[in-house]
Structures are given as structure tokens and as C-alpha cells.
Amino acid sequence: MTGTPPGGDLAAGVLARVGELLSGLSAADVAALAQGRARLVVVPVAPAGDPADRPAAPTPATPLPAASVQPTPSGVDLDAASATLDTMAHRRDGTAYLTPWSIRDLRALAARLGLRGVGGLRKAELVERLVDRTIGFRVASAAVRAR
Q1: Which of 9, 81, 115, 131 is deepest in the core (most CB within 10 A)?
Q2: Of the candidates 61, 58, 64, the residue with the CA atom closest to the CA atom of residue 21
Q3: Percentage of the chain surpassing pLDDT 90?
């Protein structure tokens, strides 16, 4: 038996990919990670054509303190979902991520994000409002700053 732990090759591959990711981040993003103000999240990738295989919520790379984890009755971690939406750059990605969710989980996420008046919205409208509140706001802000 060698000194390499089981799965060591896999771990080395994952670490190499994380290194590639970190090298592409801005200094501010790396500093936020180092200071604990940001986190990396593991989001399994499903084939684009099979929405049934998409996960309902991401799995955090490191466990969050019990006080900050806000699961819904169906088990969706709202903090991790919010963090995942924060990493998305396109509205279509957010829409694809949220569309498989139940209306109950979408309303819980809306409450977590401080959206009001969403009780009477249909699912598609609620997804659109959530995407606008997260990704859309960031995209619009970046467009204004670029002027």
C-alpha cells in the first residue's frame, strides 16, 4: 500500500480544477474567499435536456453553521440557493435553476431575499421576479457602471 489515500488521484484532480477556478478570479473575490465573506459551492451538472435530473439545491462545499442554514420543509437550503444565484451571470441560468422548484420553495426563497407581494404570482412570474432580484439586478448594475 502506498502513502496516497484512497481517491487521492480524484482529490488531486479536483484541487487542480479549484486552482484553475481561483486563478481566474479577481483579487477582490479571492480576498473575500480568504476572509470568509464568500464561499465556493458545489453544483452538480445535469444534462441540459433532462430537467428531472437537475438538483433542487446545491450542496455546500463546506458545512454552514447550523444557525445560518435555512432549509425549507422540502429540504432546499435557501442560503446555498442564494449563493448559487449570486454566482450566475445570465438570467437564463437562474431561470433554468429555479424552474424545477416547487412554488412553496420559490416563495420561501422570495421571503429570504426580501421580496414582498409574491403570494398571488404564478410560478413563472415568481421565477422571473426572483431572477430579476438577483441576477437581473447585478447585470443591470454592471451595465450602468459600464456607461
Answers
A1: 81
A2: 61
A3: 18
